[in-house]
TrEMBL record:
SUPFAM superfamilies associated with the record: Phosphoglucomutase, C-terminal domain, Phosphoglucomutase, first 3 domains
InterPro entries: A-D-PHexomutase_a/b/a-I (IPR005844), A-D-PHexomutase_a/b/a-I/II/III (IPR016055), A-D-PHexomutase_a/b/a-II (IPR005845), A-D-PHexomutase_a/b/a-III (IPR005846), A-D-PHexomutase_C (IPR005843), A-D-PHexomutase_C_sf (IPR036900), Alpha-D-phosphohexomutase_SF (IPR005841)
BP GO annotations: carbohydrate metabolic process
Keyword Cell inner membrane included in the entry's annotation: no
Protein source organism: Streptomyces atratus
Protein name, UniProt field: Phosphomannomutase
Lineage summary: Bacteria, Bacillati, Actinomycetota, Actinomycetes, Kitasatosporales
Length: 473
């Protein structure tokens, strides 16, 4: 198969349409290249519920074993369960998933031992180069002594580790609706929640990689509609929605209202700081709410601001010895989980916080949700640098306003801030605005959008970026 690897090897993973862009023979070469580049003598492999996942992961295992590595197959798992296996077993790992992408997609998330990420700067480009070479010349001869392939069940150990990190012994009974989106949450939630004082109402727990009910992407509001309605109908205390590989978790309160991932980041940060004696560093990306660094400081911690993206968060986590990190995309990272992200652990923190006091979730999170945010608004723009420069020229000279370029353009004043970032893969500018009140937020948002979408710009607004219906939460 003559593969165009530039289309499937992304910044942090491999992802593409099966079998159009990649297939099992190519997966086998990726397995061999992964062992070659990492120098691993043993690896662990897991996969999600997509129809193509068992075949692709099996092919990867064959390629790895042919290069002499012993392979441990953990079968169906969430991405954070694979990270657990990598961390607890001390092995490099490969997770076969395309997260929330449609059914015809699949991919590989790779990590070194201890769940350390593998991206373009940490081995993925070398892996790609080997696969391209072998695609042209043929795979290398197998080593004299191939590795073994064995199976292992890690689900119970994964659940036990998570539960060891959150004290749920004294929480009051809670009624919880969980929407697994036919993804891997349907596999992990029953085991993790077993024994907890939780009346679990499952939604779409059947593992089905064709996603018959809705996309397994809880950050798109349309995919939360079923959960929101069910929470209200059941009179539940809260709702949880997981994405396809169950590494992200979105929270809905008792009214069926979505809770900002920034508020969840602040809540979990406060709890993790309490676990660590009121000391520690917390990483947050630059589009999380100002409430996050405020809450961190109020609870004795040190906030560190970083770029958007898990590779940057994980790098900062390691550099600063941080205890926790959060992104507005609902990725939550924990030092005690090998600096890897796990939505399940964040969900357990929410259950513990809610169940440890008598009030509803909406009241609990109000202390962490202090500002008015726009959500992420996308605009299709051909001249991204030119539009960003026009925005800078309009705002930067104003009194009390500062600008920085850590990740795109961030403009800050005493009463508001906004960030304007170009997409790495599409002709989009992504805008996030936050202010002390809704009126100010809307005014700043509309002024920036007017500049971004000015008539002399050759781009046209993306429908998902309608300011009356901002995308994201």
């Amino acid at each position: 198969m003559a593969a165009d690897l530039s289309q499937i090897v992304k910044a942090y993973d491999v992802r593409g349409v099966v079998p159009d862009q990649w297939d099992e023979p190519l997966a086998e070469r990726f397995g061999a290249a992964f062992v070659e580049v990492t120098g691993a003598d043993a690896i662990v492999i897991g996969h999600d519920m997509r129809p193509s996942s068992p075949g692709l992961s099996g092919a990867f295992a064959r390629g790895a074993a042919a290069r002499g590595a012993d392979v441990t197959l953990i079968g169906l798992c969430s991405t954070d369960q694979l990270y657990f296996a990598s961390g607890s077993l001390g092995l490099p790992g490969a997770m076969f998933t395309a997260s929330h992408n449609p059914a015809q997609y699949n991919g590989i998330k790779l990590c070194r031992a201890g769940a350390a990420p593998v991206g373009q700067d940490t081995g993925l480009l070398e892996i790609r180069a080997l696969v391209e070479k072998w695609s042209e010349t043929g795979a290398p001869q197998p080593v004299a002594v191939p590795g073994t392939v064995t199976e292992r069940d890690t689900l119970a150990d994964y659940a036990a580790h998570l539960l060891s990190l959150v004290d749920l012994t004294s929480v009051r009974p809670l009624k919880v609706v969980v929407d697994a989106g036919n993804g891997m949450g349907g596999h992990t939630v029953p085991t993790v929640f077993a024994g907890l004082p939780v009346d679990l109402v499952p939604m779409y727990f059947e593992l089905d990689g064709t996603f018959p009910n809705h996309e397994a992407n809880p950050l798109d509001p349309k995919n939360l509609v079923d959960l929101q309605a069910r929470v209200v109908a059941e009179g539940a205390d809260l709702g949880l929605a997981f994405d396809g590989d169950a590494d992200r978790c979105f929270v809905v309160d008792e009214r069926g209202e979505g809770i900002s991932p920034s508020a969840i980041t602040a809540l979990v940060a406060a709890r993790e700081l309490a676990r660590n004696g009121g000391k520690g560093t917390v990483i947050h990306n630059l589009i999380t709410s100002l409430s996050v660094p405020e809450v961190v400081r109020e609870n004795g911690g040190t906030p560190v601001r970083t770029r958007v993206g898990h590779s940057f968060i994980k790098a900062e986590m390691a550099e600063h010895g941080a205890i926790f990190g959060g992104e507005h995309s609902a990725h939550y990272y924990f030092r005690d989980f090998w600096n890897a992200d796990t939505g399940m652990l964040a969900a357990l923190h929410v259950l513990a916080a809610l169940g440890g006091q008598p009030g509803p979730l909406s009241e609990l999170v109000a202390r962490y949700d202090r500002y008015a945010g726009s959500g992420e608004i996308n605009s299709t723009v051909a001249d991204q640098p030119g539009r960003a420069a026009a925005v800078r020229a309009a705002f930067a000279p104003r009194d009390g306003v500062t600008a920085d370029d850590l990740d795109g353009l961030t403009v800050t004043s005493p009463d508001w801030w906004f960030n304007l970032r170009a997409s790495n893969t599409e002709p989009l500018l992504r805008l996030n605005v936050e202010a002390r009140d809704e009126r100010t937020m809307r005014a700043v948002r509309d002024e920036v959008l007017a500049l971004v979408r000015a008539p002399d710009s050759p781009g046209t607004p993306d429908p998902s970026g309608d300011p009356s219906s901002p995308s994201g939460v």
